[in-house]
Design goal:
Blueprint lengths: L1 E3 L2 H13 L4 E6 L5 H13 L2 E6 L19 H11 L3 E3 L3 H4 L26 H16 L3 E5 L3 H13 L5 E5 L19 H22 L5 H12 L5 E10 L13 E9 L2 E8 L8
Parallel strand pairs: 1-4, 2-3, 2-5, 3-4, 5-6
Antiparallel strand pairs: 7-8, 8-9
Helix pairs in contact: 5-6, 7-8
Length: 287
């Protein structure tokens, strides 16, 4: 496996692969890889000839009071895990390489995509996400790009951007990977104390209850969200950011839960913000 740090070198590698008539699978990450990331790399390995994993903690998507400086980083660990999962390239650019002096071009997907769910707590976040993903896609030129369903709003934003800008990459949104006890895997889980981690399981419990209610015939968004709220608030340190039911593609709010409804939740526990979701009728609906 090869480490590439320069944009020019990454472009040269991708051009060589494409000239050979081979396909490129791409997994963009912020590093500190876990099984969720590795599942994406393995999927890319199965479907593509070459697999590129980017590791870039993007400063543009962090707010001034968020955890950019504290975000976990361990390049040597990540290189080993990525290689074992099947990556050929780890693309590891610096902030200076990605955002040269005087950088002033941004991408913003407008409307419900960036005006709901996480947008209230993280203003400007999705502009940073869209901008860096567009840059990475232009640099790597992948045939297929892989993202996780845990970041459901991010996935919807990226799919919309790619459609609107007529970009030549297929998007695979892969199922959430969970710990044995149901907690959605996240690099930020390392921030949790033992007690906070136990309380964090209430997110998954609330989603499981929502799924149970839907399977039992309940379709009222209000009733489902009320029960989820009750379960989450059993965690003494959990502060609800949002509980929402929206269409999984358009992110428009829905009052009647049906197929392709995204049930999404975000909470603060201490200084850590966690998100989780299920999609009714989707593979993630199976937990």
């Amino acid at each position: 496996m090869q480490l590439i740090e320069k944009i020019s070198d990454m472009k040269e590698y991708s051009l060589k692969v494409r000239k050979e008539g081979k396909t490129i699978g791409f997994v963009p990450t912020m590093g500190y890889l876990h099984e969720g990331h590795l599942s994406l790399i393995r999927a890319a390995r199965k479907e593509c000839d070459a697999v590129v994993v980017s590791i870039f903690v993007n400063p543009m998507q962090f707010g001034p009071k968020e955890d950019f400086k504290e975000y976990p980083r361990d390049l040597e660990r990540d290189k080993g895990l990525a290689g074992e999962a099947g990556a050929d390239i780890v693309f590891y650019p610096s902030s200076e390489e990605m955002y040269s002096e005087g950088f002033s071009t941004f991408v913003n997907v407008e409307g419900r995509y960036t005006e709901t769910l996480c947008a209230f707590s993280r203003p400007g976040h999705f502009k940073g996400v869209a901008t860096v993903v567009l840059k990475l896609l232009n640099i790597v030129s992948p045939d297929v790009s892989y993202f996780g369903q845990k970041d459901a709003q991010q996935a919807a934003v990226i799919k919309k951007m790619i459609k609107d800008l007529n970009m030549d990459t297929d998007i695979r949104i892969m199922p959430i990977v969970r710990e044995d006890d149901g907690l959605a895997m996240s690099s930020r889980n390392v921030y949790l104390s033992e007690d906070e981690r136990r309380q964090a399981l209430n997110l998954y419990r609330s989603l499981e209850k929502a799924k149970e209610m839907v399977c039992g015939g309940e379709a009222s968004s209000t009733a489902i969200k009320s029960e989820m709220k009750r379960i989450i608030e059993e965690g003494k340190d959990l502060k609800i950011d949002y509980i929402e039911t929206v269409d999984a593609d358009s992110l428009e709010p829905v009052e009647t839960v049906k197929e392709n409804t995204l049930i999404a939740v975000a909470v603060f526990i201490g200084k850590t913000r966690l998100i989780d979701n299920i999609i009714i009728g989707d593979i993630n609906d199976k937990g």
